[in-house]
Each structure stands twice: as structure tokens, then as C-alpha cells.
């Protein structure tokens, strides 16, 4: 196994992860440090650290906080929620490249963005509050800011509200179709 030990160039940038919740006008960002470097042996080094919070008590954290991967190797980014159940949220992954363009990797409806299905895999374990992104063979073009997005869903929220009405008829704010 070859390890990256000498580097010809190094770029460091700070990015933000955002958790978006319906009705929240301003998500709370926390800085991510993503480092991409290339060595003389053409291997890639990625360092990623992240933690961000949603409005309210729910918090999203990415683990591990730092990842080092050689080009062509697999890397796993795990997003975990604490303070609420992930089953009340729709989850997605997207990334923002160095030019600022955003690319959807995995959308809430279960579809992958163009060009991502072959090398990127998603594993949702909502009962364990875990949402994982695997890059099966990292490439230099994968150097980007990766965002785990949580969006609260109205239907499960309404189900929680309607579970135990406190009076005779159901007067919840949920819209029925």
C-alpha cells in the first residue's frame, strides 16, 4: 500500500455545512476544513471535518472528522442526527466544487444526480439516525465541500402532532388531502 508523504501543491479552504429545516429562514453554518493535496505519486489526500446544527435541538454531525484517502480508494462520510429522529426528515447529499457550482449527489426522492450512481453509494439507516455517503474510488475531481442536508417532512410531523389529541376532535394544523 502506498501512502502520500510528499506533496507538490496544497490547497486549503473553509466551507460551510447547512442543515435546512422547513420554516427556517437562516440555517446555522459551522465551518468545514477540506484539504486536497496531490503528491508526486498522484495520490490524493482529503481531510474533512464537520459538525453543523439544525434550527432547534436537532444536530447533524459528520464522522469521522478527518479522512485521508488515496486516489482510487474508498472514502465514507457518515452523517448522524442527534436531538431528534431522522425518520421525520428527508435526507440528501450534495457537493459544492471549487468554482462554487453545486451538484446533487443523492436527492430526497431516492435518485442520484447525473454521473454519481456508479461511484457514489448511499446508505440510510433512519432508525439509527445514520445517513452515509461512500465514494467508491476517489478522484481528484471529487475535491469539494460535501453537504448532508436534512429537511423536516410535514407528514411525519403531523403524525406526531396527531398521535394523542388532547380534546375530542382533531384540530391539528396539518392539511389533509
From TrEMBL:
<dbReference type="GO" id="GO:0005576">
    <property type="term" value="C:extracellular region"/>
</dbReference>
<dbReference type="InterPro" id="IPR013783">
    <property type="entry name" value="Ig-like_fold"/>
</dbReference>
<dbReference type="GO" id="GO:0002250">
    <property type="term" value="P:adaptive immune response"/>
</dbReference>
<feature type="signal peptide">
    <location>
        <begin position="1"/>
        <end position="23"/>
    </location>
</feature>
<keyword id="KW-1280">Immunoglobulin</keyword>
<dbReference type="GO" id="GO:0019814">
    <property type="term" value="C:immunoglobulin complex"/>
</dbReference>
<dbReference type="InterPro" id="IPR013106">
    <property type="entry name" value="Ig_V-set"/>
</dbReference>
<keyword id="KW-0391">Immunity</keyword>
<dbReference type="Pfam" id="PF07686">
    <property type="entry name" value="V-set"/>
</dbReference>
<dbReference type="InterPro" id="IPR050199">
    <property type="entry name" value="IgHV"/>
</dbReference>
<protein>
    <recommendedName>
        <fullName>Ig-like domain-containing protein</fullName>
    </recommendedName>
</protein>
<keyword id="KW-1064">Adaptive immunity</keyword>
<dbReference type="InterPro" id="IPR003599">
    <property type="entry name" value="Ig_sub"/>
</dbReference>
<feature type="domain" description="Ig-like">
    <location>
        <begin position="58"/>
        <end position="150"/>
    </location>
</feature>
<keyword id="KW-0732">Signal</keyword>
<dbReference type="InterPro" id="IPR036179">
    <property type="entry name" value="Ig-like_dom_sf"/>
</dbReference>
<dbReference type="InterPro" id="IPR007110">
    <property type="entry name" value="Ig-like_dom"/>
</dbReference>
